[in-house]
C-alpha cells in the first residue's frame, strides 16, 4: 500500500485531522471543519426531506399519479392537500400577525406523536417487561433463577426510587437506596459497553488515516 | 418399489374418492388484526400419509376462474398468508390448491368467497388498552384532585434545587446560559418535559437579565422553544429582553450539531449548561466539552444508555422519570402534578401485579402471565 492519490481521501483525512485538533484546543482548522459539516449537513437534510418526503408523499401522488395509494380516490387527494396546507402554516412564523397559526400543525404533531408513543411504550416498556419479570420462586436455587430474582429485586427497588409521592426515609428510603445502587451498577456496565463502542469508532478513523490515506498498514 | 406402493396406496384411495370426499379441506379466512389486504389459507393433507412434493396456490375473483398462481410452497406447508397490495379490501376472492404428488396432481375443492378487510381494533392488544384506560383514568382523577386545590406532595429532587443556583451563578459571572432541549422531535415526551423546565429557566434569566442561548436540532423544536421563552419573558415583565436570535436552528444531523455546540461552548464560555431532553451518542461529547469549558452542568434524559455519561460528567443529573417529575415540581401546574401522581399510583399497581404474578407462578398458576400476554 502507498500514499493515497485520491483527492477525496486527502480531503477526508484533512477534515478528520481538523476535527481531531479540537483535542488540543479550539482553533481555526476545527472551526473550518465545524462550519463545513454544519452547512453540508443542513443542505443534505434539505435535499433528503425534498427527495424522500415531499416528492414521494406529496408531489408524485398529487400531481403525477393523482391518487394517494393509502386512501385511494378524491378523499385521499383532499387529505393530502389538507396536510400540505398544515405544512405551509409552519411558515406563518415569519409573519408577526399570523405567527399563531403555526401552533396548529405543531399541536397536531404533538397529538399524533403522543397517540403513537403511549400504546407502544405501554406495550414494550411496561407490559412486556412486567411479564418477563414474573418468575417462579422455586427456581431461585439455580443460577438462572437467582439471576431472575436479582432482576425482580432491581425492578422493585428501582420503582421505589422513582416513586415521587413519598420522601426517601425509613423503609422506603432503604429500598430506594438499593434501587439507586442497582441503577448505578447498570449505568457502570452501560458506560463500559459504550466506551468500547466509541473506541471501535476511533479505531475506524485511525484505520482510515493509516490504511486508506497514508498506506502504512495493509 | 415397496416404497412407491406405500405412497400410492393412500393416494389411490384418495383419488378414488370425489374431490374433497376424503376430508381434504382448504379453508380461507380474512387474516385477523391487520389493515386488510391479507387472507390466511390452511389445508389438510390430500390423504393419510401421502407425500406431497409441493403445493401450488391459485387465486381468483370468481369461483369458476380463471385462477392465477399466487404461490408455490413446499410439501410440508399447511398454512399460507396471502398478503399483497394487489388484494383489494372488500372484494371477494376464491382459492384453490393443487398438491403435486408422486403420481400426478390432486386438486382441492375451491375455497371462498373470502373478503379481506382491515380491523379497527387489534384483539391481541386488549391488555394494552386496559392498561392505557386504567392509567388514563388514574391520571385524570389525580389532575382533578390537583385542580380542586389538594396538596400533592412531590419529594425533593437534588437536580431541581440546583436550577436556581445555576442561573444565579451565570448572573454573577456575567456569562450566558446554554440550554439544549435534546436532539429529538418535539413530540418526544422528554422534549416536552424539557420545554417546561426551559420556561422556568427563561423566566429566571429574564428576571436576572442573563442571556439564554438555545441551539436546536429540529425547526419545530426551535419554534416551540421560541414560544416558551417568549412567554416566559412576557410573564417576567421583560419582553424587551427577549432575543429570538438566541434560540436558533443549527442542523438536523446529530454530530454536526454536536460539533457546532462544542465550538459554541468554547467560544461563548457559558456559565451553566442545561442538557434536558432526549440525547444519544453526543451526550458525553457535549458534557465533556462543557466540563472543559468550566461550566456548571445540569442534565436530564430518559435515554437509559446516556444517563451514565451525564452522571460521570455533569454536576447534577435527572435520571429518567426525574426529568418529568422536575417539570411538574417546577411548574406546580395541576395538570403535571396530577399526571405525576397518577404515574406513582400506576407504579404501585405494577408492583402489585408483579408480586401477584410471582406468587401465582410459584404456586403453579400462569393466569397473570396469560392475562399480560400480547399477540402481535
In short:
The complex is a heterodimer of chains A (218) and B (376). In chain A, 74% of the residues lie in helices and 0% in strands.
Describe this structure in words.
The complex is a heterodimer of chains A (218) and B (376). With 218 residues, chain A is mainly α. Chain A has helices at 7-20, 28-64, 74-89, 103-133, 143-161, 170-213. Chain B has 2 domains: 2-114, Immunoglobulins (Immunoglobulin-like), CATH 2.60.40; 152-332, TPP-binding domain (Rossmann fold). Chain B has 11 helices and 14 strands. Chain B has helices at 2-15, 126-147, 158-173, 189-208, 219-235, 254-268, 283-292, 307-313, 322-331, 334-362, 367-371, and strands spanning 26-30, 38-43, 52-60, 68-74, 79-83, 93-101, 104-107, 111-114, 177-180, 212-216, 247-249, 272-276, 296-301, 316-319. In chain B, the strands form 3 sheets. In chain B, strands 11-10-9-12-13-14 form a 6-stranded parallel sheet, with helices on both faces. In chain B, strands 3, 4, 6, 7 and 8 form a 5-stranded antiparallel sheet that branches. Chain B has a 3-stranded antiparallel sheet with strand order 1-2-5, with no helix packed on it. Chains A and B meet through α2, α4, α5 and α6 of A and α2, α5, α6, α8 and α10 of B.
Amino acid at each position: 500500500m502507498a500514499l493515497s492519490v485520491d483527492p477525496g481521501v486527502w480531503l477526508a483525512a484533512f477534515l478528520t485531522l481538523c476535527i481531531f485538533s479540537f483535542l488540543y484546543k479550539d482553533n481555526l482548522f476545527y472551526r473550518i471543519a465545524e462550519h463545513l459539516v454544519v452547512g453540508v449537513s443542513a443542505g443534505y437534510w434539505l435535499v433528503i426531506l425534498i427527495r424522500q418526503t415531499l416528492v414521494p408523499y406529496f408531489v408524485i401522488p398529487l400531481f403525477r399519479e393523482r391518487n394517494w395509494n393509502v386512501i385511494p380516490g378524491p378523499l385521499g387527494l383532499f387529505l393530502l392537500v389538507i396536510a400540505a396546507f398544515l405544512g405551509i402554516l409552519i411558515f406563518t412564523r415569519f409573519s408577526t400577525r399570523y405567527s399563531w397559526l403555526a401552533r396548529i400543525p405543531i399541536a397536531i404533531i404533538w397529538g399524533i406523536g403522543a397517540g403513537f408513543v403511549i400504546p407502544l411504550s405501554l406495550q414494550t416498556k411496561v407490559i412486556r417487561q412486567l411479564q418477563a419479570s414474573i418468575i417462579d420462586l422455586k427456581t431461585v436455587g439455580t443460577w438462572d433463577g437467582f439471576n431472575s430474582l436479582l432482576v425482580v429485586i432491581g425492578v422493585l427497588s428501582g420503582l421505589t426510587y422513582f416513586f415521587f409521592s413519598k420522601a426517601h426515609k425509613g423503609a422506603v428510603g432503604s429500598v430506594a437506596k438499593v434501587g439507586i445502587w442497582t441503577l448505578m451498577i447498570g449505568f457502570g456496565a452501560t458506560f463500559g459497553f459504550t466506551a468500547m463502542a466509541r473506541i471501535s469508532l476511533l479505531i475506524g478513523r485511525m484505520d482510515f488515516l493509516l490504511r486508506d490515506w497514508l498506506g502504512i498498514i495493509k | 418399489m415397496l416404497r412407491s406402493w406405500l405412497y400410492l396406496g393412500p393416494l389411490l384411495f384418495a383419488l378414488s374418492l370425489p374431490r374433497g370426499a376424503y376430508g381434504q379441506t382448504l379453508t380461507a379466512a380474512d387474516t385477523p388484526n391487520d389493515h386488510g389486504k391479507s387472507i390466511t389459507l390452511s389445508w389438510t393433507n390430500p390423504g393419510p400419509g401421502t407425500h406431497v412434493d409441493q403445493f401450488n396456490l391459485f387465486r381468483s375473483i370468481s369461483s369458476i376462474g380463471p385462477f392465477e398462481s399466487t404461490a408455490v410452497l413446499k410439501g410440508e406447508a399447511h398454512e399460507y398468508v396471502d398478503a399483497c397490495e394487489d388484494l383489494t379490501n372488500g372484494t371477494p376472492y376464491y382459492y384453490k390448491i393443487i398438491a403435486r404428488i408422486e403420481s400426478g396432481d390432486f386438486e382441492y375443492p375451491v375455497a371462498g368467497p373470502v373478503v379481506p378487510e382491515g380491523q379497527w381494533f387489534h384483539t391481541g392488544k386488549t391488555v394494552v388498552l386496559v392498561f392505557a384506560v386504567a392509567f388514563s383514568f388514574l391520571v385524570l382523577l389525580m389532575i382533578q384532585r390537583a385542580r380542586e386545590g389538594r396538596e400533592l406532595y412531590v419529594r425533593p429532587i437534588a437536580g431541581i434545587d440546583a436550577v436556581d443556583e445555576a442561573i444565579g451563578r451565570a448572573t454573577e459571572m456575567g456569562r450566558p446560559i446554554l440550554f439544549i432541549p435534546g436532539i429529538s422531535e418535539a413530540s418526544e415526551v422528554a422534549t416536552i418535559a424539557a420545554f417546561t423546565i426551559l420556561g422556568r429557566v427563561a423566566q429566571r434569566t429574564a428576571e436576572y437579565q442573563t442571556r439564554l442561548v438555545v441551539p436546536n436540532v429540529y425547526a419545530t423544536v426551535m419554534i416551540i422553544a421560541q414560544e416558551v421563552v417568549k412567554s416566559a419573558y412576557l410573564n417576567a415583565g421583560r419582553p424587551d429582553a427577549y432575543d429570538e436570535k438566541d434560540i436558533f436552528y443549527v442542523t438536523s444531523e446529530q454530530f454536526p450539531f454536536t460539533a457546532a455546540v462544542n465550538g459554541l461552548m468554547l467560544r461563548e464560555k457559558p456559565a451553566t449548561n442545561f442538557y434536558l431532553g432526549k440525547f444519544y451518542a453526543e451526550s458525553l461529547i457535549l458534557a465533556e466539552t462543557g466540563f472543559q469549558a468550566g461550566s456548571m452542568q445540569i442534565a436530564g434524559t430518559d435515554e437509559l444508555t446516556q444517563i451514565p455519561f451525564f452522571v460521570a460528567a455533569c454536576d447534577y443529573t435527572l435520571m429518567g422519570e426525574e426529568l418529568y417529575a422536575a417539570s411538574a415540581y417546577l411548574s406546580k401546574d395541576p395538570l403535571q402534578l396530577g399526571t405525576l401522581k397518577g404515574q406513582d399510583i400506576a407504579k404501585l399497581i405494577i408492583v402489585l401485579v408483579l408480586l401477584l404474578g410471582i406468587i401465582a407462578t410459584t404456586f403453579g398458576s400462569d393466569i397473570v402471565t396469560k392475562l399480560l400476554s400480547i399477540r402481535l
